[in-house]
Specification:
Largest sheet: 5 strands, antiparallel
Order of helices and strands: EEEEEEEEH
Helix content: 10-25%
Strand content: 25-35%
Shape: elongated
Radius of gyration: 22 Å
Structural class: alpha+beta
Oligomer: single chain
Number of strands: 8
Amino acid sequence: MSDDRPTVAPEPRRNPDGTLTLTTLDAGEVRVACPPWCRYEHPYRTSRTRAEIAHKSEPQWALTAPTVFGEVGVGPVHISEHPYDPTGSAVLVVVETDTEEFAVGPADARRFAVAFRALADLIDQAADQVEAIRAGEDQ
């Protein structure tokens, strides 16, 4: 096998008590209990370190009312937990866009919500302006 190919981690082993055993590069086999909201997918393409073990909730999207393009998704947003993260920022809210992913704590998640509401207000204002312009054109 070529040295430039990643090492593929074995599939997690599900134990009789519901825990998972994950093989890591730095700590060997690590037994973890998934929180109830974890989607039970631990898709490691390469071997991970103990600090990189993560739990994720199902992603949630908000859908717009039907537009000419159909319903448009906003998000996804999900909860992510890194139980062995040495920085202490173990449980985060993850907000994704087309180009980036932001893992933030509750305060910053609320800032995102405020920003999305402000963006929604701007979209509503632009829609109002377009309606006013169209109303003037029709007269």
